[in-house]
Amino acid sequence: WRYSYNLKALYETPTYAGDDEGGSAQKAREVLDRVRASGRTILTEHESKQVLAAYGIPVLPSIIAATEDEAVRAATEIGYPVVLKLHSLTITHKTDVGGVQLNLKDEEAVRQAFRAIQAGVAEKAGPEHFQGVNVQPFAKLDGYEVILGSSIDPQFGPVILFGMGGQLVEVFKDRALGLPPLNTTLARRMMERTKIFTALKGVRGRRPVDIAALEQLMVRFSRLVVEQPWIREIDINPLLASPDRLLALDARVVLHDPSLREEDLPRPAIRPYPLEYAGEWTMRNGETVLIRPIRPEDEPAMVRFHETLSERTVYHRYLQVLNLSQRVAHERLIRICFIDYARQMALVAERTDPHTGQKQIIAVGRLQGLGQPEAEFSIVVTDDYQNMGLGSELLRRLVDIGRREGVRAIIADILAENVAMQKVAEKFGFRIQRSVDEPVVSARLALQ
Question: Which of 229, 247, 249, 279 has the highest count of CB atoms within 10 angstroms of its CB?
Answer without folding.
Answer: 249
